[in-house]
Amino acid sequence: MQVRSRRQVLAAIGAAALAPATAGCLPLGRPGEGEREAGPIGPVAQALGSDGTTIVVGDPSAELVVKVYEDPSCPACAEFETTGTGPRLLGMAATGDLQLQFALGSFLGPGSKRAVNALRAALDKGKFVDLHQAVYDGQASAKRRGGFSTDGLLGLADTIEGLRDGSFDDAVRAARHRQFVEAADQALGRSWVRGTPSMEVNGWPVKEGDRDVMDDGGALRRYLKSAEDRPPRR
């Protein structure tokens, strides 16, 4: 019997996601419920985590920590971040209710690597959150053109005030953050994650039976409430 590595499993899930008949990298259950709120959320803290591969959004001292594992080219991740509960989590991070962490993989190929590199470059400008939203809003269009390209990502950056300048453009064109891209991808490959999007709360993985938290605001609220009574996993 052939034994496949976790990276091979992730890549297989991602490859299946590219077929037109599938909804995404990993089934999310019910269709999304239109969580995306109109308009900007306002300023929110965003920084590189101490592990060097996680991006932290919101108050880094918040007791409630939600970590999301994504690949920018994953259709299910786009669903989570547009019509699922991703925007709700971002709003909670902006108001200080939780610390939101992003672990970005790029197992779906070169377009993902270019997107993660651009997202890391946007973090240097304090614009990670803005570009992250723009990337998922523009994912379907990018796929019709063969995936995220350098020029396509710079076009998305054009929609974000104050992001594009010489240093950002150079970082995107020259893949200045390639080491971060590879390290983040390897970290995801070593994790418990078998597909994206995946989530953990205070270090505890959200199990398959609770995946409605990805697209149901009420389920997410109840899950986070119950997490307050559970000690963090170290």
Structure commentary:
This protein is α+β, with helices and mostly antiparallel strands and 234 residues long. The protein has one domain: Glutaredoxin (3-Layer(aba) Sandwich). 43% of the residues lie in helices and 11% in strands. The protein contains ten helices and six strands, in the order αβββααβααααααββα. The protein has helices spanning 6-17, 75-82, 86-94, 110-124, 128-137, 139-144, 150-158, 166-173, 178-190, 217-227, and strands at residues 46-48, 54-57, 65-70, 99-104, 198-201, 204-205. The protein has a six-stranded mixed β-sheet with strand order 1-2-4-3-5-6, sandwiched between helices. A hairpin with a 5-residue loop joins strand 1 (46-48) and strand 2 (54-57). Helix 4 (110-124) runs antiparallel to helix 5 and helix 4 packs across helix 9. The longest helix is centred in the middle third of the chain and has 15 residues, at 110-124. Mean pLDDT is 86; it is low at 1-9, 11-24 and 26-40.
